[in-house]
Amino acid sequence: MSTETADVTTTRSIRNPVLPGFHPDPSILRVGDDYYLATSTFEWYPGVRVHHSRDLVHWRALGGIVTERRLLDLRGCGDSNGIWAPDLTWHDGLFHLVYSDVASFASGYWDAQNFLTTAPAITGPWSDPVRLHSHGFDASLFHDDDGTVWLLAMSADWRPGRNRFGGIEIQQYDPDRRQLVGPTRLIFTGTEVGLTEAPHIYRHDGWYWLVTAEGGTSWEHQVTVARSRELFGPYEVDPAGPLLTSVGRPDLTLQKAGHGSLVRTQHGEWYLAHLVGRPYTPLGNCVLGRETALQKVEWSPGGWPRIPGGIPADEIAAPDLPAHPWPDEPATDHFDAPDLASWWSTLRRPATDDWIDLRSRPSHLRVYGGQSPVGKQTPSLVARRVGAPRCSLETVVEFDPGNHRHLAGITGYYNTQNWHYLYLTRADDGRTVLELLSCDSGRRTAYPELTIDTGGARRVGLRVRFDGPALHFAYDLGDGWRELPVTLDATILSDEHAAQIVDGEPAAWGFTGALLGLWVQDIGGDGHYADFDHATYHQKG
């Protein structure tokens, strides 16, 4: 627990990013004295990761909202597809969550199905999802003062030669009938920066304020603000330029600043939640992925919202609220709880008891093996986000492989095409061995010279360590830790490395960030499993 007491309100600061590691596209919401941040999760369960704060300084992970296939089915989901840009609102005693399930980004087709689910509490239970339109992604709800509810989204245009980001559209939603009604209207076509997306509308001082993201989600990203006296426009763009951007400032720690949403505190202070990236070198690879930061917003004499310098700051003034720290997350997960802790995610399938078992063997996580490292239907990967350039995950595993189709170990992971993996398996001569395998843009590299005979050790310690741009593996057969004599490239586990453009079209995007994970394969479908005794995560900075 932090040493700050609950009644301290003075001279505290918010240090960015407030949600380090893979936490992009933040939607911020205040309900009473509670603040929530919902972020994108793509091909990972639980979908729509949520954090909770009471002072905007200290945040705790609540896990995810989309926990069941009833709400989302990610079987076969492509890398960086799945849940994009969730939107969290509160109205008439209910939380409303809108989320996009994006199935493609090939040839200008996104196939983005938007859904709405509601719940009386942030922890649920969440209603069966309502299918909304598939006109485009980044959908959000706006609850107007007259009681009407409106769905906003970017308007996608697949036609060759047209602007694929066709603007921001709006359509009324009828909560009683649980369906969209009336015509769709295009209310904003964006600025010359283009790639207009991520719309949110707010009412303030007699205006409708439209906040959008422009420039794409990389180095040219920005937050654009426009206003109108009427909901349907016309919308006037802030003549001073973007509310926030890192463009042209490679010296800044926080790059890619954009995709923002606003929140007003109980005392009338305003803050912007937005995504950022922290490259290891100027405009270099962002192994940590896109993260969430906060900026203080002031309203200018002309009525426009302003952020000092229009750039993201590493540290800002906290609001005038009582400090509310949370208990520290334990470094070691002993797997004593009946369910996975909130910091774990699972790849493409929820943590159901057909492959995740925390009950059969007390204080152990039993993982039944899944598909190969490139399988997209039933992989068996339990992972957590890389939260700092220097961090590690350590575990002890018991595994009795029957043949070369059975593997279990520890990984530094980005997607099916980019990972490093130290695993136990069975050699052709019957020995249980440790092997190392890397995959870079789909090209695998084996290290047969580093194969380790475990000597029949029943329990094997495994560790993966990120050291900035380098990644290292170590093992313990009962006589102390030994590091494998190879330095691996951690920067292949990054958004920039994962993205691929072929003939001017995106063949792959990188929208997540690096993860550390416990991975098990049973490629032959023989029912093999591995038992992990604990998992310890450490980070510096």
From TrEMBL:
The protein's superkingdom reads Bacteria
Q: Which InterPro entries match?
A: ConA-like_dom_sf, GH43_C2, Glyco_hydro_43, Glyco_hydro_beta-prop_sf, Glycosyl_Hydrlase_43
- This chain belongs to the protein called Glycoside hydrolase family 43 protein
Q: Which residues form the Beta-xylosidase C-terminal Concanavalin A-like domain?
A: 332-537
Q: Provide this UniProt record's keywords sorted from A to Z.
A: Glycosidase, Hydrolase
**PANTHER family per record:** BETA-XYLOSIDASE, BETA-XYLOSIDASE-RELATED
Per the record, the similarity remark reads:
Belongs to the glycosyl hydrolase 43 family.
Pfam families xrefs = GH43_C2, Glyco_hydro_43
